[in-house]
Amino acid sequence: GAGALERVIAQQLRLMEQQIAALRGPVAPVADVQPLSAVPAAAQTAAPGGQTATDPAAVPAQAARLADAPAPRAKIQPETFVAYQPLNTEGPGGLTARQREYLDGFMARYAERTRASKAHQARYHVPLADSRVTARFRRAWKEILYPVVSDRARGSRVWDLDGNEYVDIGQAFGCSLFGHAPDFVSRAIQDQVERGYGVGPQSALAGRAAELVCELGGNQRAVFCNSGTEAVMGAIRAARAYTGRTKIAYFAGSYHGWSDVVLGRLLSAGGGREVRPSAPGVPELPLGDVLMLPFDDPESLRVLAEQMRDIALVMVEPVQSRRPDMRPQAFLRELRRMTREAGTLLHFDELITGFRLGVGGAQEFFGIQADLVTYGKIVAGGLPMGVVAGTREAMSVFDGGVWSYGDDSYPAAQRTLFAGAYFKHPISMAVACAVLEEIRRRGAPMYDELNGRTARLMERINAFFEAGAYPITAAHVSSCFRFFFGREVACPDLFHHHLIHEGVLVIPETGTHFLTTAHTDDDLERIFRAVCASAEAMRRGGFIPEPPAAPGERAGDRPETVRAALAPPEGLAASSSTSAETAKR
Ligand code: PLP
Questions:
Q1: Ligand 1, pocket-test mutation among 171, 230, 236, 255, most atoms within 8 A of CB
Q2: Which entry of 60, 223, 227, 290 is 20 to 30 Å from 19 by CA?
Q3: d(CA 318, CA 217)
Q4: Ligand 1 atom nearest residue 317's Cα
Q5: Triad 50, 53, 55: Cα angle to 5°
Q6: Rounded distance, CA 130 to CA 223, Å?
């Protein structure tokens, strides 16, 4: 039908864009792989050959409850995520006169409201070579491409240099489970500052921090470094040292940091697939030992089955931050079974899901014990942090294994190099202990409440999108969410700039949003209003098609269904946080 034709044309256009890019630069892809992430539900319940993927009895009841909770696939399927995108320097052509006129007005209002941030960017543009500023560069709206500069941040709120107050849903890339600068974290930092923070001598808190990562995360041992990227590099080296194999496998659409080895891009070539560098400066060599496959796809299991005995590590982002609507439970269970059988290590990269999905992260959520798990972010509430944790056997590579005093035991296991001047930094360790103790104290009920509030916000937002026939969907897992835009939406990046203009701070380059325990009902109402106002404004500007007018309604009127979807939930006054533009209407 028409939908299929549209998809074919869109694919052709993408292909042409890539061919043009290939003519321009040395690292452009030969051809993109088809988006393969949309696996029918049926495919998730059976392994290749038709056997049942796992024994459901092996899954703890609590985990089954969590992972089997309804998580409908988002109606809109986004393209497979690739972290690095080449600079788009196309001219501002391609917009209609209506879009152009609206955009000029919007940019003027945006730049006026955030003039100090813009002046700051202009002032420091030369000394500060900030890749984030150009991560999603577009000439058509370059006048508003600058970061909102924070003056201070507390709880759910951020104040910028112009004094604008925002409800922040970027929340430090997901580092803040409790909002910005909660008192117990600030106290932990101050206490440590008073004791001194020299690196070198062992931090008195590193042992307790490791103990908490193990107890809460369901691991046996842990080591600390300074970022998720480092932790992933550590896990890869550990697996290679442990197994004596060099090949590693990971999946398209995941993000595992910015080291060479994880910056592969899956391409289709000559009827097969190959992994090529996804960013300039990434050499081919480290990718020679990488097997990259579509995520949550039974065909990937088949390919892995053929090669598993040569693979050191299968690395997986159990719920991809770019696909919070996917719950690849059967796929993960099958990976667990296959890796265990082949002596391959299974690695859950839980930089986002760790201590976010629940106390025990994705291991608890899916009821699957990985060999290695990487964490960071929430663990130190915004301070630099990376953690590799896992089973006693796999973790032995970091120190040669456990040994004791007073007998003749010694570190007998294979050991490799893992070292950094700032590893176990005393301030990061102090914050890790404070955050993890707080998670331990508040436990599952805290997550139930936060995740439930997020789910209700998503339902309300999606009801509004549906009522107004907006081709946008909000998708979430626990308190992490994203918006997916249909192909009918022109310039979807502008949606994030509208949210910022409406007083909701986002990180436009990632588009991954987070709620925290610091977000109040009023904050949620402000987020909802800002989302609605942004969608309506983009439609007025001609970036989102009009819905067909119902009988008796004039085009452009708010249909009754939309008016109903906009009504505040009981207990909240309609005017409490209505955005300026929505209020006017
Ligand atoms: N792995 C995952 C799943 C991530 O989401 C991230 C960052 O967002 C990383 C690794 C890299 O972590 P970092 O930015 O701390 O280097």
A1: 255
A2: 290
A3: 14
A4: 3
A5: 125
A6: 30
Phi, psi of 290 (to 5 degrees): -110, 130
Pocket of ligand 1 (CB under 6 A): 173, 227-229, 232, 255-257, 317, 321, 349, 351-352, 376
For 234, the enclosing helix (H) or strand (E) is: helix 228-243
The pick from 315, 352, 356 for probing ligand 1's pocket by mutation, whose C-beta has the most ligand atoms within 8 angstroms, reads: 352
At 253, which amino acid appears?
A: G
pLDDT in tens, 549-576: 776 666 666 777 777 788 777 655 443 3
Q: Ligand 1: which of 229, 317, 374, 423 to mutate, most ligand atoms within 8 Å of CB?
A: 229
Q: How far is the CA of 234 from the centre of ligand 1 (A)?
A: 13
The alpha carbon of 374 and the centre of ligand 1 are apart by a number of angstroms equal to: 9
Tally of residues, the chain: 585
Q: Cβ neighbours of residue 18 under 8 Å, at least 6 residues apart?
A: 28, 29, 31, 32
Greatest Cα-to-Cα distance within the chain, rounded to the nearest angstrom? 89
- The catalytic residue positions are 255, 349, 377
Measured on CA atoms in the order 90, 485, 471, 480, is the torsion positive or negative? Answer: negative
Q: Among residues 90, 182, 253, which one has the least CA distance to residue 438?
A: 182
Which CA distances in Å does 174 have to 238, 485, 527? 26, 22, 17
Say how far residue 431 (Cα) sits from the centre of its chain. 22
Distance in Å, CA 572 to ligand 1 centroid: 37
The three-state secondary structure class of 165 is: strand
Return the residue whose CA atom lies nearest to atom 10 of ligand 1.
256
* pTM given for the model: 0.86
| pLDDT tens digits for range 116-162 | 999 999 999 999 999 999 999 999 999 999 999 999 999 999 999 99
- By C-alpha distance, which of 546, 502, 489 is closest to 528? 502
Predicted confidence (pLDDT) per residue in 425-475, tens digit: 999 999 999 999 999 999 999 999 999 999 999 999 999 999 999 999 999
Coil vs helix vs strand at 57: helix
